[in-house]
Amino acid sequence: MSTFTDIPRAIRAGIVVVDPDSGAPQRVIVMQFNPDSLERTIQPQAAGGTGGSSGSGTDGDRNEALRLKGPAEEQWKITAEIDATDQLDVAAPDGIHPQLAALEMLVQPTVAQLRESIAAARRGAIEVAPIEMPLTLFTWGDKRIMPVRLTEFSVNEQAFDVNLNPIRASLSLGFKILTVSDLPAGHPGADFYLAHLAMKEQLARRVVS
Fold this sequence. Notes:
Elements: E1 14-18, E2 25-30, E3 38-46, H1 59-64, E4 68-83, H2 88-91, H3 97-104, H4 111-122, E5 135-139, E6 145-160, E7 166-177, H5 188-205
Antiparallel strand pairs: 1-2, 1-5, 3-4, 4-7, 5-6, 6-7
């Protein structure tokens, strides 16, 4: 009887929440189904001017035409599915609430953080620092692991159990890739971005001219 050992194991896309100080993983959120499509938008950060017709630019604009201010800004957008309709005994009693909550907490401060912020304001703190969220990594195979900030999160809940717990939902997730221009010096996320960019350079060198 064949065990199909030659068939590669499917790799799931996912999100890893990392401690920003130590770099240790705190939580891993694996997509139940890999999205069918991925939309990426890349915006170069040119140093020179972008307007005007040929010959109308200043000498300064011409000198800057081929220069970059930093890494390109990149946005990702995916649509993911969560479905527990065929495993209600596993999903009970909460349906897919836990999976949705894990994603929502990527853009929500914790109760403890909010209470600490309120307490600081009551103590008369002149300026209450914004709450820092954990570092979030988005993984899409072994060649795309990058620090991101969740910029878009919409949920379409499509089915419910008898207790109105959602059991099927479609998610639209948007991410901004965080670069060394977005993160402070020494931040673990900057190292993750540099590793991501180094992988791009290796792949680009494999192109046969």
